[in-house]
Amino acid sequence: MVATFRLRNVVAGVMAVGLIGAAAATATASASTSTSVPTSVPTSVEAPTESAARTNTVTADRQQVKQWEEFRLHGKVTGIKAGTTVHLQQKQHGTWKTLPGTSVVNRSLDYSMRVKLGIKGVNQVRTVIAGQPSNPVTVTVR
């Protein structure tokens, strides 16, 4: 008997809260339609500011390496979240080809990547993060 009484009180309380919430929503809707003060609704989204623009800058620790010798690319990003994957690309026959090397942007919004190249001669490499390519870096493989 006591359990039934408590259950009825809980159900009644939930229904009262639901009715109060519905009444408040109705009152707000009717008050907003009956006021004569026009509300402004933005019609377009403003372009992001320069500080929020995405940038991806990369440098190599060496400009000349031996074939398959390891070197490092160090990069800095802005406007890109930490934890985003960094992809390595190499220019081959005039087009950028994605290589298997990847890294991740850290909390300081920078990254480091170990790279080994096998194509002798002048090579251009870059990184791509969230569709944002970096500046190309030239490394000569001897």
Largest sheet: 6 strands, mixed
Shape: globular
Oligomer: single chain
Number of helices: 1
Q: Termini distance?
A: 91 Å
Low-confidence stretches: 14-29, 43-51
Roughly how much helix do the residues carry, as a percent range? 10-25%
Q: Structural class of the secondary elements?
A: alpha+beta
Q: Approximately what portion of the residues adopt beta-strand conformation?
A: 35-45%
Radius of gyration: 29 Å
The strand count comes to: 9
Order of helices and strands: HEEEEEEEEE
Quick tags:
6-stranded mixed β-sheet, globular, 3-stranded antiparallel β-sheet, 142 residues, alpha+beta, 9 strands
Q: How would you concisely characterize the structure shown here?
A:
The chain is α+β, with helices and mostly antiparallel strands.
Task: Report what the structure shows.
It is a single chain. The chain has 142 residues and is of the alpha+beta class. It has one helix and nine strands; from the N terminus they run αβββββββββ. The protein has one helix at 2-34, and strands at 55-60, 64-65, 70-78, 85-92, 95-104, 110-116, 121-129, 132-133, 137-141. Strands 2, 4, 5, 7, 8 and 9 form a six-stranded mixed sheet that branches. Strand 7 and strand 8 form a beta hairpin. The chain starts with a helix and ends with a strand.
